[in-house]
Amino acid sequence: MTDLSDLTPAAWPARAAAAWPAVPLLVALALWGYAMRHTDVSSLDDFGLVSALHPTFWAGLAVLTAGFWFTVRNPRRRNIWSLAYVLGLLVMERATQAVLYSTPLYAWAWKHDAVIDHLLTSGELQTAEQLGDMAVYDQWPGFFAAQAALVRLLGVDNAAMYMAWWPLVSSLMLLLPLLLIYRTFTEDRRLIWTAVWLFCVGNWVGQDYFSPQSVAFALHLGVIAVVLRRYGRSDGRRGRQGQAVWTVLLSVLVTAMVVSHQLTPAMLVVTLVALAFTRRHRDWVPAVTTVVVFLAWCLTAALPFLSAAMPDMIRSVGDVGANVETGYGATPTGTGAVMTSWAARLLSGSVLLLALAGVLRQRVLRHRALPLLLVAAAPLPMFVASSYGSEMIFRVLMFTLPGAAFFAAAALLPKVRTLAADAAARETGGRSPSAAARRRRLPLPSLPPLRYGVWAPPLALLAGTLAFVPSYSGKDRINYFPSAEVAMVQQLFDHAPDDSLVVAANRNYPLAYEQYWRVDHYWFLDDDRSHIDEIVRDPAAVLARDMAAVEAPARAYFLLTRGQVANSEMNGQLNKAQLRRVRESVANSPRFERVAENSAGVLYVLKPANREGEGIRP
User: Fold this and answer.
1) pLDDT of amino acid 583
2) pLDDT of amino acid 417
3) Quick one: 116 exposed, middle or buried, by C-beta within 10 A (0-12, 13-18, 19+)?
4) How many C-beta neighbours within 10 Å does residue 489 have?
5) Residue 418 has pLDDT above 70, yes or no
6) pLDDT at residue 198 above 60?
7) What is the DSSP string of 166-181?
8) Cα(429)–Cα(425) distance, rounded to whole angstroms?
9) To the nearest 5 percent, what fractions of the chain are helix, strand and coil?
10) How far is Cα 87 from Cα 587, in angstroms, rounded to an integer?
11) Which contacts (CB < 8 Å, 24+ apart) does range 523-526 have?
């Protein structure tokens, strides 16, 4: 029999202390699971998911953030716990919508599914003569071809079977390159994981959905990680031989990016050029490689699109005001839309201000991590180049965030370390750099040490974490399409003859581009304001005139759905009364016949002029 006195007294308490981080993590996930079971999304208002979420969701986020902060600040905690908390954050941030909603979000995601379906149906790339403006996707087919192969491999009907989970998948893809980038400059685990956390909560722009941009951004960060870690000052002949191997990998990553997305390679070029001007990374191989691959694609496969778009692109160069402003139909309208828009602005502004504070406070970072500061600043000149469909400001924020999050994290910590500073200290026997070395530094301004309250940094982290939800999910009334809406649109395309025309207020509905290679689409809110006003004055007559050119056996359909109404109201296009006028005018017109209606919308068909008395079915 073993005497209890023979046991090590501290063994059990030590194990309990080591496992303590699991408690708040499990509590947070349990609260999240409870919230998922008790959240009703059947009638979203202008606050989107924010007002629909059960209160336990917010409690779970608060517990998760608190647990992360006290775990990451403890130097004895292993990195695995910080990783576990970040994964928990991504689940609560990016998987919530996939769990709650019965169908995938975002009209653009459904559009990309249609492009994949086109590749699977036609089996080949096609030109503008065959596809019109949709041929642009065939000129950058990398993402769509890969997804078409994945659909075949998984044996599913289409990408819609899994694209609801893509935000979580694409966010997970960013973790490895982010960690590699941050570990290039520091081994301070507090700084690394706090920066990762801030990146996750600051990345509200929404480009993690099922899109080429989501994969291209991961490739972009992968190239940056390779350049920062494997290029620069070479260690003689062996270093040059090693760089040849990494150049091959870099070329593969760049090629995959170039054939998938239009904007990301340009962002990468300006970033690599900025890095090449620093002393540590004065190596032009990555920048030249990217430029060569980029130009080769633009001057061959992408040339038809670029030739047509070049005049508009040239006119936008230098027009910063127009490049950062939003156009008609992109102005938040209503209390919910305005408040969620301001939440997003304040979140991004706070991260950028914290980054500035980190640069000014942490002398060692602004000197030793200068390449990462350039990574954050390099996308800013893109404001001069293009508006990118009124989205340039959002894309610049996204590409700036990896560097900004690193310096913002430094602002929340009292003191940070870098790899270069640690190495210098070891070389000098632990002494600080010499006065002569300090005199060689640039005379940048410095803020005095901040006297933080003990709760200020975690409260700032919590505020950013909570602000992510309205910034990311505040427009879910626009982005979510219930099953009834999907079923109605699917019924339309299942029966529409070739060369038919679908007329809708805007393109914010599921399957909006379904079978675009055989069915035409017309969204009248994309027209000039004068024509929109004409439609509002006499909807049925003007729409019938616009749709009259369709010849039998093709049909002209008018579709008005919940998603179109939400987008029009919340983005300042047509208000509820105007949309009601359009619907009632069409319903009362003898030129139109209703062929389908449910809780999510209504579908009409235009009767041929010589057959107005006959019933028409899709």
Assistant:
1) 93
2) 62
3) buried
4) 26
5) no
6) yes
7) HHHHHHHHHHHHHHHH
8) 6
9) 65, 5, 30
10) 50
11) 525/329, 525/568, 525/573, 525/574
